[in-house]
Design brief:
Layout: E1 6-7, E2 28-29, E3 33-36, E4 47-54, E5 57-61, E6 67-70, E7 75-76, E8 80-81, E9 87-88, E10 91-93, E11 100-102, H1 105-108, H2 118-121
Parallel strand pairs: 1-2
Antiparallel strand pairs: 3-4, 3-7, 4-5, 5-6, 8-9, 10-11
Length: 122
């Protein structure tokens, strides 16, 4: 399996103003927590961890051991990761286009959270 663009060192990433999905990350770390938006209804809305890229598909592993390939755009980054490595996801639907997006840590702590995804805000 090709390991291009992956890293086993460094820190896991959280959503930022410019990085909301796994595709947005330049270097993906094995074990990166993600929230699955994907195409399989029985897996949609679940948390998983990024494993590796295989022919431009991000393979993610679920807690039950299942491994499924997704377009990296279908995988949202967590809002926060605590000091024990537990990922927290604050996922909201965009009021303009109805796509789900993850809030950044700063956005989740604001008095008024954003109601539109980053694409619709611009």
């Amino acid at each position: 399996m090709p390991l291009v663009g992956t890293s086993s060192s460094g820190q896991f990433s959280c959503a930022t103003e410019s990085q909301h999905t796994l595709k947005d990350l330049r270097t993906k770390r094995k074990g990166q927590p993600v929230f699955v938006l994907g195409h399989l209804l029985n897996r949609k809305g679940q948390e998983a961890t990024f494993e590796v890229f295989n022919d431009r598909i991000a393979l993610v592993k679920f807690s039950d051991g299942g491994i499924v390939g997704y377009d990296p755009l279908e995988l949202l980054l967590p809002t926060d990761i605590d000091d024990k490595g537990i990922a927290y996801f604050e996922i909201r639907p965009c009021q303009a286009c109805e796509i789900l997006f993850s809030l950044t840590r700063e956005e989740s702590q604001m008095d008024q959270e954003p109601t539109q995804c980053p694409d619709c805000r611009t």
